[in-house]
Every structure is written in structure tokens, then in C-alpha cells.
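sry for the spam today, last one i promise. C-alpha cells for design, 106 residues
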């Protein structure tokens, strides 16, 4: 099974950081890093249960190519104009893929 053929959807990987606007108010900035090809995977009952225990609400889970620079703190994902925070990252280095659990931006 080839990863290149499986990745058929396009998302945007974004860098998330804090900044100050022109009126000295703190804001959260989301800057595009690169395009991200992914395939949608379903959310399991265990994933829903773990996310509720951590007081987050996982709404989407995607599989994409492994990238060691992606983290929960400094990155986000935009899919079809909707922005998501990365809640958990599951990596499979042998297959060079990772799964991202996503939640809506508050």
C-alpha cells in the first residue's frame, strides 16, 4: 500500500503563535507553513472517551506523512476553511506516517 496514492485530501498546516496587535492587545496568529495531504480516519469510542476525560472534544482524526516538526503546541490545521487545534499526535515512524486528532478552535 503506497502512502502517495492514499493521501487524496488537501489541508493547510499552520504555525500558531501569540503576538500583540496595534492596540497592544494579545492575539493568536495562525500563519500558513505548507500544504498537507491527508486521508480521513474515523474517531474511535476510545478516542472520544479519552478526549472527554481531558476536557477536549476531538471531532476529526486524519492520517498524514510523518513530520517531526509538527507539535500540538505550535501547529494547527485548516481543512475547508475550518481551523482545528491538534490535540494528540500518534506516530508510526516505520511507515513514515502520523495520525492527528483535531478539535475545533475555541
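last one done:
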Amino acid at each position: 500500500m503506497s502512502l502517495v496514492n492514499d493521501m487524496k485530501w488537501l489541508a493547510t498546516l499552520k504555525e500558531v503563535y501569540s503576538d500583540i496587535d496595534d492596540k497592544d492587545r494579545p492575539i493568536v496568529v495562525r500563519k500558513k507553513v505548507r500544504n498537507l495531504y491527508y486521508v480521513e480516519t474515523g474517531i474511535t469510542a476510545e478516542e472520544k472517551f479519552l478526549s472527554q476525560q481531558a476536557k477536549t472534544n476531538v471531532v476529526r482524526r486524519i492520517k498524514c506523512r510523518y513530520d517531526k516538526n509538527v507539535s500540538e503546541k505550535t501547529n494547527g490545521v485548516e481543512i475547508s476553511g475550518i481551523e482545528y487545534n491538534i490535540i494528540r499526535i500518534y506516530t508510526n515512524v516505520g511507515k513514515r506516517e502520523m495520525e492527528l486528532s483535531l478539535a475545533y478552535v475555541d
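Residues 55 and 83 are 19 Å apart (CA to CA). ok im logging off now
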